[in-house]
Queue: 4 jobs
Job 1
Amino acid sequence: MQNAAQLDSPEKLETDGRYEPLIGNAKIMLVDDEPLNTEVLQTYLSGEGYSNFVTVSESQEALEIMRRELPDVVLLDLMMPVVSGFDILTAMREDHRLKTIPAIILTSSDDADTKLSALKLGAMDFLAKPVDASELALRLRNTIAAKAYQHHLINFDQLTGLAKQELFVDNIHAALPHIQYAEGSAAVMIVRIENMSQINNSLGRDHGNELILAFSRKLQSCSQPAEVLGNDSNGNVQCHVSRISGDKFALMIGPLATAQQAARLARRVIIETGKPIKIDGQAMFTTTRIGISFFPDDATQVETLISHAETALQHARRGSGEGYMFYADEMNAESSRILAMENGLRTAIEKNELLVTFQPKVNVANGQIIGAEALIRWISEDLGFIPPDEFIPVAERTGMIVPIGAWILEQACHAAAHWRQQFGFEFLLAVNVSIRQLIDSDMEATVKSVLKQTGLPAECLTLELTENMVMENAEANIERLHGLKNIGLKISIDDFGTGYSSLSYLQRFPLDELKVDRSFINELEDETSEAPIVRAMVSLAHDLGMRVVAEGIETQVQLDYIKDLDCELYQGYLCSKPVVIKAFTDLLSAQQG
């Protein structure tokens, strides 16, 4: 298991003794055209505990040897024939593998311009020839300590001490040839804490960081090869763990014999990280999802393996299985489709590919259409008809739902205002709102502007939000909804009963309407059917002063049942499927006779 030492500032490294182990292991490269000089320097440094030297007297060979050996520090003479120290410094700074290697210049020149030129090329320090042994030891020690500190900052996450993504990629690059030589496989996993944003919102960033640290320790502990593989484990199995973003980690384990071993690790990670973590005396629970790609079956390139694991993670987040998923070619095809949707959505409005349809909202008591729910449809030039449950999550993730939502609101309000004027009744319009729109700082201004522009009274507009959406960061959403309510419109909670609402919160939301999800209505198959959950939800809503809309009414039996419960409104194919503006106008005309 790769684990980073926790390093502090270079100054502290020099005083607390933690640089000492680095001295014996540090690889020192000495480049000087006078072999006697390198021999003297080696003698000095050996007395200080250094033992790993690379000496070069032919300066034209220095860069090739440097690329092969990758020393920790270079002691470099400036004035050399054929290839000078300046030439070597210039080439080092242009090579991504060499540019971070510190160079200490050894020179007999005291010319200020010479030193300035070397500093501009990246030289870290200077020593005058002849070199003072004690000064050399001190400068070298400080340089190694500074490099260790810099290496730590660049490569390791400061909170958890885990490798950052770039070092993780390097570690996999180094491990895969050994795994291939052993004729084994390896699993690359992307591990995500699903509810991290909610935890940060409820606990604050400081306690959120405590949870991240505890989670990372659990992840490292439960992914130890011996713990995961049991008797199948051996000393050759490597496991590298990384924190690649705020709520996302990655790990690689191999060589493995079967994919089942990777599945065993994924299940163990989900179980162990799902156990409560105590933060400030409060038990917190994390929800973990994992995407897995497999070497060499899914890919042989490191970057592709990571990309495939990310794709598998997205499927695991949408799935209802065990919380992890392996990559498959089908996922790659779907990822390409999602990318095409992302690109297409950015121009869908201006290309007139989006369409607003309307499904009637019907008065249960008298069968009259009293309004409609506006529903978006997308017919792409390139992809054809795309169902809303495919493109709306993409729009939300990319933020495109904000301009698209504003466009839907404007189009629907124009239509509702027209029907209100044409048919002479208080037409009630319902428009769905996403979480991205709700947290958009301009939401209230957008609604006010559209209502003013279209002439639709605020009391004729209902904004529909899903149960899970309003419960995420509930306190902030209560405040946002009150702001929208102050405009004069109504708020409806959709998909009720399918999420995790707290009744205490439900009472605090400024809700006017509750929609019973069609999954509960489907239980009503004939006159003998009972739907106690529907009965309970209608009763609850009425007790809280809300009207009730039953979704998915397709039969007379279902309509009769909700009528007995005094349910006020319904939507469903019994009246009409969602239709375009002209067809909806015909429905209203037929109703008027």
Job 2
Amino acid sequence: MRTHHCNELREANIGQTVTLIGWVNSARDHGGVIFIDLRDREGLTQCVFRPEENPEVALQSHTLREEDVVQVTGRVVARLDGSGNAKMPTGAIEIVGAALRIVNKADVLPFQLDKELSNEDLRMKYRYLDLRRARMGRNLRLRHTITSAARRYLDEAGFYEVETPILSNPTPEGARDFLVPSRLNPGRFYALPQAPQQYKQLLMVAGLEKYFQIARCFRDEDLRADRQPEFTQIDIEASFIGQDDIIKIVEGLLVAMFKAGLGVDVPNNFPQLTYREAMDTYGSDKPDTRYGMKIIDLADLFASTGFKIFRATLDGGGVVRALNAKGFAGLTTGQMNRLNEIAIQAGLPVKTLAFIKCEGGEYKSPLWKFFTEAEQAALIAKLAIAEGDLVFFGAGALDTVCTILGRVRSEIATMMELTKDSTAFNFLWVVDFPLLAHDEETGGWGAVHHPFTRPNPDDLALLEAGDYAKVRAVAYDVVLNGYELGGGSIRIHEKDLQAQMFQVLGVGPEEQQIKFGHLLDAFRFGAPPHGGLALGLDRIAMLIAGEESIREVIAFPKNNKGADLMSHSPCHIETKLQREVYIQSTWKNPQHAATTAAAPAPQS
């Protein structure tokens, strides 16, 4: 239906007769001469319809409006002197229309495609129109480009792409499962995979050695800008490898993806921080290192303090730490309230953050008078406090203090726009995560990553002794500018060690067989040492595209309530269909209930 696409013609094509087809991007009437910009996926070409060239076609062109689908045949000519458009690749030429076929007329659009739209619900309802916009087309093309680069890299590295089931068993991956009733097995349910974790380990037992998959994953959890109920990850698993091998593979993969997507050369050998270093220094296991504002330990400075709060905290095994928000002393009341709110959400036991503000040569704080002159001088020196600085303090349990100050640090960076114009890509690895986390409510222990994560061999004695809080995992996350791009671990491949791990997690032998019997059985038949990692493809595409939400790089995303406003899903299912899969909904239609209540009682 065309000889060229709409971003193909140049001055070398002048004199040729061509046919283009696409959407009317814009139409302009210049004294009876109609100009349109014709658009397809590749770009724009200007077409002109003049009465003196073809009166019938020119008359027909007067009916055109935006988003009509048209086919134009005509001659390529140079634009008149001074009328070229250097911003368009096709801006030196235009098509003089000799034939025009209106393939399909478009109704009036619900919004203009050439303007950004703040009403996200409207964008989601008409997503097929939203995707016509240049920005969205660019994002999906970019996603395709980096996905193709990932496939090429992994193929060249010897990985096989293997698909794993979507309908499977529930697995403990840290979120609720989406359940699917089975018609052929009444009362039984499948679960959509939160990740292909068990299947990729079974592929290692099967001897494939190197596996990858562009995997669809599903998690029923609260949503945010970088989270969707269904998402895509680049899933990788390999045998006969260690942590350093996985890190080398993934660094090369990310280098290839960023080179394909942005044309930038990301250096290999990303820096590494232990989990403890990341939390102690930045208050986050996915720190953004594009700015400083590090958390400083003040235990030595206040070792002999008479300030009761700090004294009691340190004597009780807690910590005293601070961060200096340089130049932020002029924050507004609203900003301070916001920081207090974030700190309380992170575990601050009081209503306001403790602080010291340096303004007009004075140190303004309710705390300042409780410090000795030596402590004041040491504090100024250690935190490099200068005019205009604002210092926040945290005192209490180590992890709580780090988390509070880490959240405050991140919010201050946003308020101060510390990364607004940054073009840096600060990749890093966080390693040596804790293997287990204590559940204060149940008193039990849960896996920080998942129950198949291998304990650090140096800490096996601690695991045996029940000193679970000190056991490290052979686990690793790759981080970019405050976003976790992916995480993984070396896996447990021995049946006995896996059973021991389940026992620590409170999963008894009977439950182990019900939930994981297939995996434990597989480990009996010569399971190789193996490990892997999964990268969040949506999140990587978002960062490469310079977007702030993964919805901007997903063709048909859900909104913050997990709903697709375009297709009206999720939806209510008719009672007949529910019966076919042996389920019954407890939801009642309010309108139906009101009608039923108003109806007279049947006669006996």
Job 3
Amino acid sequence: MHPDLAKLLDAGRINQAVAGRLDQLAPGSFCLHKAWGAGKVIDWDLPGKKVTIDFEQSSGQVMDLQFAIQRTEPLDAEDFRAKKVEQIEELRALAKSDPVALVIQLLESHGGTMSVDVLERELSGGVVLAKDFRKWWDATKRALRESKRVIVPSRRTEPLSLRAGDLSPAEALVSDFEQARDLKTMSKALEAITMDSSLFKSDTAALQRLLSGINETAAKSVRIQLGPAIELLSARDELIGAFKDIELPPESLRLSDVLAAEEGRLADALTALSSGRQRAIYEQFNVAFGERSIEVLTEIFDKVGSRGVTEIAKLLDELGHMKVLEAHLSSAVARRSLGTDALIWVCRERNGVAGTIFNGEVGACILNLLETDHLSDGPRKTTRLQTLVAEDKELLGDIVNNMDVNEARNFGRRLMECPVFNDLDRKSLMARVIKARPETGELVSGQNAKKEQELLVSWPSLEKKKAELDDIIRNKIPQNTKDISIAREYGDLRENFEYKSAKDHQKYLNNRKTELQRDISRARGTDFKGADASAVNIGTIVNLINEDGKKVTYTVLGAWDSNPEKAELSYLSVLGAALLDKKIGDSVEVRDEHTEALHSYKIESISPVNP
């Protein structure tokens, strides 16, 4: 105990407990303050109840002794944070000469575990120059993994952990697997063992122990954690492949058996896996499905996320089965059923392996998907597709270059009406279309542009839009405001799903309100009475016949009056726009709703809906 305190204690001025706490603030000792960091006590004035401390963030800080007792906690002289106060130059030298030892010291001072963010706060700017920290940390992570002294997670959000005991590199890798508490961590541990397989060449007994436990773990998890279970089995098979002396026991659960038994759930299960792991699993489809393997790969192509789309396409191309994929995608494009990830792949590979798939229909498919997602109630799913359309300067030009004049004009018209883009973006995108196809320029100039601003609609559809707008303003927006307020009370907004969902819905409601207000302001209601039937116009019934005598009838109505079941077309739809201004005897191409094939029809008669 400090001599000054011993005198006070002997004189009965303070008790033993107070003397013990004050001794922790004696000159030469170290302490920790939440705001100012670690510090060293330089001097004290016991009669004046003052203490002077050199903190990291505040040198020569004079504090009231009682305040210092309440706001600081003692630090051992060997604690890393204490060393930063008195031995900073030694730590800086250690960061350069032996960064692994530096990190181990830091972890030992924090109970053996800490997040990367905390590590960065401790080292960046003081021990390691802030501008050099990222480069230093990348090199240090590699050295830590090689040393096997520290468990370095693959994700920044997971903590670094100091390994217990003095384990050999091989024992440390096995320990990582045995201490893993979830399937994904087990898979990562197996991958690490595979990468350092040379450490086990002389002794594979430890690996045999691992294999016996994997089978039971994976079998129990297939039903509720299919993706991680498949990933674990694939990592196990990769590990076995790295050793000549290890074979999978006959009674073990086979990856191919799981794939075959869970065919219906594979797409969802594989989406979250890495590209490399997905590729390894797809290569097992031949064993799992035999002659059906290519068919199954094609069926899940558009359901396994962006990584899966890329890996399946590469595999089919290498196997010489791209024709099968091309046929599948061409049909999906024609049916407007291709999803976001597959559409993005087709667009990005349009000058490569997807060249035969990319055509004008892809443009209609993109707009359909964007509009459908925009109008759906929930989080956006097509943000990446919308970004691609905006950032790929050549995409729209390549799309309309695959169209004839009427198709290009119809596509431009749809683009101008697309509610997904704001006015500025819409003009920018339309400029790209006009650059590629100048004949579409009339859509945004002169009298034609003025006509495009007006929407001709039926009275019932107009009333329906007004009712929807009224419901949003009176009911849905006030309710959403309450939902957001309630969700705020559920905790941390970064992890608050209810809050994020409510905010996403707020964005949708506001966008929808703006869109409805704009459309209603442009709308002109009509009952279609007295429509001119000398050519196809809004408010006319059109009878068509093809060369085989097959007849179809369509009714061309207002902008919001599409009803496929009744063969009623909006004049803004692709087919409706193609029919406009056609006369009896003119030809038009119509797509079969079942086969998606295009057939040429001749207009047989035209009559008004409401004479």
Job 4
Amino acid sequence: MSLFWLPQQPDWNAALLEARKRPAREVAPRFVALANTSIDFLQTAKLDKIVQQCGDDLRAALTRTRPMKLALLGSSTLTHLVPAIRMAALRRGFWLDVFEGDYGMYHHELADPSSALYTFQPDVVLLALDAQHIAGGNGASAEHSLANLTACWKLAQEQLGATVIQQTVLPVFAPLLGNNEQRLPLSPFSIVAEVNHRLRQQAPQAGVHLLSLDTLTQDEGLKTWHDPALWHRSKQEVSPRMAPLYGDHVGRLLAALRGLSYKCLVLDLDNTLWGGVIGDDGLEGILLGQGHAVGEAHTAFQHYAKELAGRGVILAVCSKNDDANARAAFERHPEMLLRIKDIACFIANWQDKATNLRTIAETLNIGLDSLVFADDNPFERNLIRQELPMVAVPELPEDPALYASTIAGAGYFESLSVTKEDLERGQQYQLNAERNRLRESSTDMAGFLRGLEMQLIWSPFDSVGLSRITQLINKSNQFNLTTRRYTETEVAELIGQPECLTLQLRLTDRFGDNGIIAIIIGRPAHGSETDVLELDTWLMSCRVLGRQVEEATLELIVKQAKLLGARRIAGFYLPTAKNGMVKDHYGRLGFLQTSLAEDGSSSWILELKTFEAKPTFIQIVEGTLDHRTDLREAH
């Protein structure tokens, strides 16, 4: 099965028939659960057909993020991939509308503003060009193909305002020379290799994301992905049997664009991070490290987890164990790669794991739908799937040597970029633990806040912070007043606009740097109210809540708004499934509510002439970390 990390459900067809009898409110989670099983091409098509029949009712019931629109443009037959792409979105809890371009007409549709593509107005354009189109014709060259692709990127970005995903080229051609094919640079085999190589160089610079189809063939082989007979009969470059996996990889990218990738890997201990049961076998008896195949497999899994932590994935432990025994392995076993300092939240007790996972999410201040739970025990995996269906639970195989490849293959932690803050995330959570210890030792809140010695460092948007700013805009869900998403190109257009307010805010304290923790976008109101600055975007990291950052940020916004000539600030709250925590944000800060709609959205206004900043223990500084000063006095 191509979706090997998902559990199989023997009574899948019966469950589908039962689910479709339910009203939309109840059927949505059942359909999501069915999509989260190891379904094949035919099951995918069957589920998609029923889901599409439910239409608007189901669309309204999927509220993890607002619906997305994807345009699938290519040069071969793509119809058989559409159900799998839609079901990959359903698997992640959101609705996806797909526009399939006419066969081979991708460039015409992109260039013609009167085409159906422009009527559709996609959020994302996926360019899926086949190898024959790229390198199979007379006079084909890498330069010509790349020029064509970059022209398409520009049309999609500038004319449609869409994010672009570019599919790399399947290496379907037989080599003409053999092992030294690079000596024949104009062979189709070499052209495909060169195009893929240069795509990986040029796409990041153009703000384009890649669907790395060529590398996907490495695990299961090109013959699994591509059937020459199907190509000649129906021009299907990707085999239908691999459509579910193809669709899932598209779904991962779309989820990452919406900030729906998972954030935390929660690890069981016994027979997951090591072989054996530490409570029974003792520290010396567990299998870990060199000299034993099982021990080496568990060490390899720890190495993979540590590498994930290095790129920004949070690690946590959830184990039914005695706490002292569990910690002993991390503290004293010589072959243990992971240490206590690598674990952001460590829970080892005898409570049920669903309760402990709730505690982990609460402690880390992230949603349950940000957790991936890795446990060797089928009973525990099934329990979590039933009790906490929003938690991702990979179906770990019996052989621990396959744990890492299973989690990697599932693509839970798909990311479109890596920023400095990503690389420092593990350290930031460790510093948060030190802050919490200070809070527990402080006799009052004011003493705790004063002791943090906080500094809020701000600057307008700039090219240096562009990647991180865009990432935050598209990943932040909870403390996000409007949850509007912008591409990197759209964010770049705001840089240097004198009439707009753009702020990126970094919070430091005596323990270290919290990274960029807030993004503000303000625009002048249209029409007669020219003295009003409208807050288009206000988002913040939940890690810094309760430290007066909201009040200090408003003080900064007011100062900058006055410099822009504003007399009033308008704020807006647009409700989503995740941002209920900021429903009363503007009211708490002293804004006057001016409207409240039936869907819960609201408008607010703040008169600047009567505004008085609330005192905080935060010093506001324009500049960079190099300008840090003594923060012992609160302003």
